[in-house]
Design goal:
Length: about 300
């Protein structure tokens, strides 16, 4: 995927009151908003990420439940900026706190902030936290132009890396789409290509914060539960808030609750629930500048 790490997101409908459109548009076209990323060299932007996932499977009358909660801090370090607004930034995860439970077994927990040996299965997380994971070049519309993976086994955060914006300004209630393709490996060794699109809808703009609803739409007809059971883990329904003035994502809230029957025989079932939230914490450069301004008064 070019615009996001893992897909997840909710349909936007154009029912809005006059109060929703009271914000001054950020383009020369009345009632329309020009949405763009605006990052500067030296900025360090951080987000608190929380991902909860629960999977319940039933196969031949045997039930198993797995639950995972992951909390992390994601950082973008902006390295350079071109005159057209294209930036290169370094992505890293500063710390991770993970808990994992399968059925009635004891809970397994690991935190990179604590000096302890990582439990079995958490070794790759311990190796990559605090290190540059990828170097990404992003244009002002949120399109990833280049991605250099620096750590092959890097811990992956969920949700959208960026929202790809259209070239033209957007009116409240309008939608745009971004095509994508999901590769689904099958038990027989083949891979099925599934065409999807991410649909984005501008719901409102208030106090320079744009609320954008997003949903994954599956375009390829799916009639095989084996494909569907993997696909539901890659879908998205949720809301993203974007700071129009600062030019970056403020928050994400993604939630998926899907069930598939018959993926391993007629009596089998798979119930997948996930909730992902991301909240902007701080821009270190902006905070330092604010402190300097206050001292100079």
């Amino acid at each position: 995927m070019s615009a996001f790490v893992v897909c997840l997101a909710v349909p936007g409908l154009g029912r809005f009151s006059a109060a929703d459109q009271s914000e001054k548009p950020s383009s020369s076209q009345p009632g329309r908003y020009r949405l763009r990323y605006s990052l500067q060299p030296g900025e360090e932007l951080r987000w608190r990420v929380v991902h909860r996932a629960s999977v319940r499977t039933v196969v031949t009358q045997t039930e198993q439940t797995a639950e995972t909660v992951t909390q992390s801090v994601k950082t973008w370090k902006v390295l350079s900026r071109r005159p057209d607004g294209t930036v290169t930034f370094q992505l890293q995860v500063d710390d991770v706190d993970m808990t994992h439970r399968i059925g009635g077994r004891p809970e397994v927990r690991y935190s990179t902030r604590e000096k302890q040996e990582p439990p079995l299965g958490f070794e790759d997380v311990a190796k990559t936290v605090g290190k540059p994971l990828a170097r990404i070049t992003l244009d002002s519309r949120g399109h990833v132009l280049e991605r250099e993976q620096l750590e092959p086994d890097a811990f992956q955060t969920h949700g959208y890396l960026t929202v790809p914006f259209p070239e033209e300004p957007v009116a409240i209630g309008e939608s745009w789409t971004f095509p994508d393709e999901i590769m689904v490996p099958l038990r027989n060794g083949t891979v099925k290509k599934v065409k999807v699109q991410q649909k984005f809808t501008l719901v409102s703009v208030k106090n320079d914060v744009a609320t954008i609803e997003v949903k994954t739409q599956v375009l390829t007809p799916i009639d095989d539960p084996e494909v569907e059971v993997q696909l539901v883990q890659r879908l998205s329904e949720g809301t993203i808030k974007f700071d129009v003035t600062a030019g970056h994502i403020l928050s994400q809230e993604i939630e998926v609750d899907r069930q598939v029957v018959g993926f391993q025989g007629p009596a089998s079932s798979f119930h997948y629930r996930t909730r992902f939230t991301e909240d902007f914490l701080v821009d270190k450069v902006a905070d330092r500048q604010k402190s300097a301004d206050e001292l100079g008064r």
